[in-house]
From TrEMBL:
Catalytic activity annotation: ATP + protein L-histidine = ADP + protein N-phospho-L-histidine
Name of the protein described by the UniProt record: histidine kinase
Transmembrane stretches, start-end: 6-25, 32-54, 100-118, 124-141, 153-174, 186-203, 223-246, 252-273
GO molecular function, one term: phosphorelay sensor kinase activity
Coiled-coil boundaries: none
InterPro entries: HATPase_C_sf, HATPase_dom, His_kinase_dom, Sig_transdc_His_kin-like_C, XrtA/PrsK
Domain annotation Histidine kinase: ranges: 472-674
Organism: Thalassomonas viridans
EC number: 2.7.13.3
Domain of life the protein comes from: Bacteria
Keywords: Kinase, Membrane, Phosphoprotein, Transferase, Transmembrane, Transmembrane helix
Amino acid sequence: MQTVGFFGYSLGAVAFFVFSLLLVAARNHTVIARWILFSTLVTVVANLVAAVQIKLGFSLQYVMLADAVKIASWSVLILSCNVEVKTIRELLFSFHVRQYLGIWGVLMLVCAVANNWLNYSYEYLFLLFVLLNLWVLVLLEQLYRSADLQVRWAIWPLVIALASMAIFDFVLYAQATMVEGIDFDFWYSRGFISTMMMPLLLITTRRINNGAVRVFVSRNVVFYSSILMIAGLYLLMMAFAGYVINYIGGEWGTLISIIFLILGGVVLAVLLITESLRRKLKVFIAKNFFANKYEYRDEWLNLIETLETTSAESHYQMATRIMMSKLNLDGGAIAKRVTDLQFKVEYAEGLALEDDFNQQLVLLSQYCQSQGWIVDIQEYVNSPGLYPELSLDVEIWLEKKIALVVPIFIGRAFYGMFILSGHEDVKPLNWEDRDLMFAISKQLGNFLSLHEANDKLAESKQFDAFNRMSAFLVHDLKNVQAQLTLITTNAQKHRDNPAFIDDVFETVESATERLNKVLSQLRNKQLVQSQSKVVDIGELLDKVVQQCNVREPKVSVEQSQQCQMPLDGETFFSILNHLIQNAQEATKSDGWVKVSLVADDKQARVTISDNGTGMSEEFINKRLFKPFDTTKGNAGMGIGVFEAKQFMHSIAGKIDVASEEGRGTEFCLTLPIK
């Protein structure tokens, strides 16, 4: 057999040497062509070392070292089909090649230490070659499965050649691991196997266009390759365990190890066939080893642009149509939860959901809230076990051609559901489709919540505007009431005075105008804009003081100058009346309230001062000018000072306040003269 082995290895060396000469003659300078030449020469050396070892009888470790280099060179060739490089240096420094060579080098070093320094015979070397050949099979499976038809036609001879040598060596070294020695009948046959595979390599070399093949490794390829790798490692572990049992089990060891291996194989088959495990493994591989199917940044920007540019009758319609467009469906609805047992269909298009469908929505909502899953109706029909604790009347859903139900969560709160229907050939959703649908659903849920909040805010603002208008109207009515009170208070004393009668008619006329204004505001449901006209400020101030002096303490005018300027005299009268009245209410009856008017060519300054209770600085800064905040309880509206500030700003004036608790307050109104 040694002569046969020597002849086989020698024939293999000659065959691959001729192959290398053909490669050189082809003058193909691409990276893959040059690496095929390198791998071929390594194979020539490996066959020569094996042939010489048979004649000289030196250690098999040298042959195995040459074989390890040969396996690495062909593995790098397989990996090179998936990288875009222009030089050998770039190939060797590419990520996957560096990763492979790094692991290969570590394994070689560990096995060398275990065999030579720790004197552990050849077991670790045998196990090393089992792993290396299994790795070659995984790489070949990835390469072939991920290639398209044209590339498969070009590479199938290469795959068959390398896989045949790897499988033969895998069996050889697996058996050697089990029995602690190489079966030399197999060992001497390796040269002939290598020789027979050379023509297949030659065919692949001729078929590869310009020496270049580019293959995209798909997710399914990695999944199946991972399954193959897991299965191989698992079986090796079982084999090692069986060996241990056989070693320590005595007479019963062989029987127990066989039973153990069979049981391990059954367990492996059950695990790999289990659909849930396969799904989880597939998702894990896709999430951790591949880029996302969707570019989420682009999806996010597109969604924002769609929300900004799409016009619709309502935000419910817009959200439903966006979700329909993402899945290319022609029907959809949005069902909002009113209570745990009641849903309201806010919008529906191409899908009719009657009241009797509410019970189905309740059942589905309970499941969505507990699981947080998107429900694929067709998947539920085919595999109800994937949706535990969900019980639906399938016929109703299929009759309406409902395909998907996407729950809507705002934060952690369940809002409702998108119910989508369409054609029957809806593609099943993978985990990335579901993640995208969840992301879009969450964003649309926030969009709906924001619009609903805006609607409520708009409604609240309408009520607020009405309440504010009512407050100003009541304030005006109080001023009218004060004018009429002035008449009734002085009627008994001055009823026979013609001048008093003239004032009464003037006051009634002014009150009538104010009441007409109030009625106009009520009819139009908004405040009426007053007209500006030239007003004598001094004269207006005297009228206010006269009206306010019906109560204690009396108001005195310290200084008054003639000053005329265009403004809304009626509103300014009301402001002065309110500020003076506030000063009187804050001052004891034996105190004093003073007003003054100082004017020049540019501005007029009205000052109202008292020696009343005063105000703190904090009250002035935080509450004084705040609308509807009053210290008078139900007797006040809390808008007088706010109205004064708003009016002064509208005429480019200003209002200043100086106050000290227990000593009094001073308001200074500065009006620009135009």
